[in-house]
Amino acid sequence: MLTRRIIPCLDVRAGRVVKGVRFRDHIDMGDIVELARRYRDAGADELVFYDITASPEGRVTDVGWVERVARELDIPFCVAGGIRGVEQARAVLHAGADKISVNSPALQRPALIDELAAAFGVQCVVVGIDSLRDADGEWRVRVNSGDPTRSQALPRRTLDWIVEAQQRGAGEIVLNCMGSDGVRTGYDIEQLQAARALCRVPLVASGGAGACAHFIEVFRAADVDAALAASVFHAGNIAIPELKQALATAGIEVRP
Amino acid sequence: MSAGVPDVVLVEAGGTNIGSLRYALQRLGVDAELSSDAARIRAATHVILPGVGAAAPGMRRLRDAGLVEILRGLRQPVLGVCLGMQLLFEHSAEGDTPCLGLLPGRVGLLAGDHQVRIPHMGWNALTIVRDDPLLAGLPQAAYAYFVHGYAAAPGACTLASTTHGVAFSAVVRQGNVCGMQFHPERSAMVGARLLQNFLGL
What is the chain A residue with the closest CA to B115? Predict the structure, then answer.
C-alpha cells in the first residue's frame, strides 16, 4: 500500500538553509547537504528545497547546490523557486532534482505548466499554491508570497486554480494555507478537504503543523497524500522517527 | 577493467534522471560511464537504461541514436529503470508505442479514482513473488519510491509486485534483462541493495 509522506521543507537563500519568521529576519541554519543528510537519516520521505529569494528577484535558482544534494541524497527531492521556463527546469532536473515546483510564475503565465508537463512528463511537475481566505469567505491565491513587500493578492479562486493546474499537467499540488502558516495550530482542514474533493493527483498539505496530532488529523480528515512542514522540524519540536511512530500507532500507513 | 569490478554504462538517450543514477552507483563505488556509443555499450559488463518522461519520445531517442538493435542484442545484464523498464516490454499504451520487446507483456495506464491518485507517487511496499539473486537481502517490509502513471501487469517475468489500485510489476527479470519500475537511486537502503544485487549478476 502507498504510504503517506512526511516532507520537511528547507528554505534556501544564497546556497544556505535559512529560517525566517513571517518571511523576514532570516537566520542561517547551516549547510544544505548536511541538513539534507540529517533529515534523510531521520526518515524523511522526501525533501523540498525552496529558494525563497528566487521568484521575487526574478532569477532562477543556482544549480550548483542541486547537484551537491543529488550526489548525497538517496531519497527524492523537489526544487522550488523562480523556475519560469523549460530550459531553467531542465537545468534543475539535469542537476539531479526529481521534481520541480512552480508557484508565482505559473500564476503569471499558466501555459508554463503545459510546457513543463510536455517536456518532462506530469510526474516531474509540482504546482505550489499559496492561498488565503478573503473577507468574503473565498480562498484566493497569492503571488510572490516569499517577499512581503511584493506579495500580491490575485482575483483567482484557489479551488479554480487547483482544477486548472491539473488540466494543464500538474502531477502534484502543494497547497500552502497561509492563514495557518507558521502559527503551529494545525493544518487548515476545511480548505484541504475542499481541495481534496477536486484533486485527482497527489495533494500535499502545507502550513500549520505544530504537533504530531496535527499530522494525524490532516491525513485522517483531509485525506492528503503528504504533509509538508518546516519550522517544527527545524526547531526540533517534532522528531520524524517519533512522528512516524505516532502515525503508525494511529493506523496511518507510513514508511518505517 | 580489473576482474570483479563491473564496467557499467548508462545509456544516454536524453532521460533526465541519468545524473541521479550515476551518483547512486558512485555511492556504491562504481563510476558508470554515460554513453550512446554502440561499441561502448556492447563492451560494458552491465548496461542500465534510465528514463523519465514518455514512452514515444523515449523510443524515438533510442531509434535516433541507433540503439534499438544494439539493446536487443545485448547478452550482459541489462537494467531498465522506471520508463527504461517499460521500454523493455513489447508495447506501451502511452502514445500507443511499440517498445523493445525484450520482455513479454504490455504496459498500460494505471486506472485512478478518488482514492487511487495518479501519478502513483511515493513509497510503496514490494511484495516478493519469486526468489531471485536480484532480490537478495531485501528486508521483510521493503519500500521503494515510485513516480509513474503507467505500469506492466504482473506476468511470468515478475519478481516483485506492488499494489496501487491494482497489482503491477515492480521488479522484473528474464535471463539477463531486468527492470525496476521504481527509482532505486531514490529508494534509500532498499534501492542501494537492489542496485548492488544487479551489479553482482
Answer: A200
Q: What is residue B171's DSSP assignment?
A: E
Cell of A177: 494555507
Which residues are CB-contacts of A24 (< 8 A; sequence separation ≥ 6)? A148
CB B89 within 8 A of CB B55: no
Domain ranges of chain B: 8-199
What 8-state DSSP symbol labels residue B11? E
What distance in Å separates the CA atoms of residue A132 and residue A178, rounded to the nearest whole number?
5
Are residues A139 and A191 in contact, defined by beta-carbon separation less than 8 angstroms?
yes
CA distance A14 to chain B (A): 23
Residue B185 appears among annotated catalytic residues: yes
Chain B environment of A72 (Cβ under 8 Å): 23
Q: With an 8 Å Cβ cutoff, are A45 and B20 in contact? A: no
Bond prior to A155 in cis (omega within 30° of 0): no
Q: Does the model's ipTM exceed the 0.90 cut?
A: yes
Contact A92, A66 (CB under 8 A): yes
Query: Which set of grid coordinates corresponds to residue A254?
Result: 507510513
The single-letter code of the amino acid at B154 is: P
Query: A88 to each of A107, A214, B183, how far by Cα in Å?
Result: 17, 36, 23
Total Cβ atoms within 10 A of residue B179: 29
Please write down the HEC assignment for all residues of A27-41: EEEEEHHHHHHHHHH
Which residue of chain B is at minimal alpha-carbon distance from A76? B186
Cα A71 to Cα A69: distance, rounded to the nearest angstrom: 5
What are the angstrom distances between the C-alpha of B144 and each of A225, B11, B16, B23, B170? 16, 23, 19, 18, 9
Taking only the tens place, the pLDDT of each residue in A10-38 is 988 877 888 765 556 678 888 999 999 99
Residues 6+ apart with CB under 8 A from A120: A89, A90, A93, A100, B16, B52, B53
- Could you give the angle at the alpha carbon of B129 between the alpha carbons of B126 and B131, nearest 5°? 105
What pTM value is reported for the model? 0.94
Sheet of B106-109: strand order equals: B97-98, B91-92, B106-109, B150-152
CATH no. for B8-199: 3.40.50.880
Query: In angstroms, how far apart are the furthest CA atoms of chain B?
Result: 53
Residue B1: pLDDT over 80: no
Which of helix, strand or coil describes residue A20? strand
DSSP state of A14: T
- A75 close to B186: Cβ distance less than 8 angstroms: yes
Kindly report, residue by residue over A106-132, the tens digit of the pLDDT: 999 999 999 999 888 898 999 999 999
Q: Which amino acid is at A132?
A: L
